[in-house]
Amino acid sequence: MQRSSSPPGVVFGAGAYLIWGSFAAFFGLLSFASPAEVVAQRIVWTLVVVLLVLTLTGRLGAVRGIDARTWRMAAAASAALSLNWGVYVLGVTTGHIVECALGYFINPLVTVAIGVLLFRERLTRAQWAALGLGALAVVVLTVDYGRPPVIALILAGSFAAYGLVKKVIRLDALPGIAAEGIVAVPFALALLLVLMATGRSEMTSSPAHFGLMLATGPVTLLPLLLFAVAAKRVPLSTMGILQYLTPALQMAWGVAVMHEPMPASRWAGFALIWTALAVFTTDALLRGRRGRALSVAEAEAAAL
């Protein structure tokens, strides 16, 4: 079925990325707890909500029928996502929101680099240029920060790894999220029990803290549901452009609200990243347009 950029589909897609973009504000409210506890609570409550949705929709059987190979892949995806969540919460709660945004800006470039290194994919000149600009940006930002942008690089690498597993795993979105949660929840519960036993758990320290921790479940699942709906209605090229809403909002929050420093050298590094993304996105759109035109021409020739 051909996808069309219907207004409802674009709204769902934009809604998903806008919610993800607001995560810096939401998870900033959880700074009362350690990043490890926040991630553990997020794993538990997201799993609870996903299992509830699967039960209500009669799709819980999709989880029961998962084979051993798929469980191993779900474990790999869960490890990558847990690392991503933990580093993101750490960055947000320690005043590195702009660096977190950088991670999601460079994520598409890291994904392309993984394709070259692991799958020997051949790149166009524009894609090589984009990768070169991205690498130069990392060098500029390393000089600016006085260290490599470790948070950004881990976020980009872990999310690219997660996307790689999700690309090949044979599970729909909700059963996949449930499987990842089932794999991770024993470790999350063990950590929460240790924190409670040692008096370091913050969830029950006040009703507000309890409510915020509980909210991590639906807050995590809602944009995933919106994304799943949008992905069936909106072309990948449109979704590729919409994805930049998330780091743009995160960066705006870090600079305008949290007043994180942005010297000229840092702006220069981000400018290089944005130029690389512009080159990368334009190339993808042009190749997609040429591919569609070729398909139409072949269909017309076959009909003659």
Automatic annotation (TrEMBL):
Alphabetical keyword list: Cell membrane, Membrane, Transmembrane, Transmembrane helix, Transport
Topology with respect to the bilayer: Multi-pass membrane protein
Cellular component, GO annotation: plasma membrane
Segments crossing the lipid bilayer: 9-31, 43-62, 74-95, 101-119, 126-143, 149-165, 177-198, 210-229, 241-258, 264-286
Pfam families: EamA (PF00892)
Protein's cellular compartments: Cell membrane
InterPro entries: EamA_dom, EmrE-like, RarD
Chain ranges of the EamA domain: 8-142, 151-281
Family assignment from sequence similarity: Belongs to the EamA transporter family.
Protein name: Chloramphenicol-sensitive protein RarD
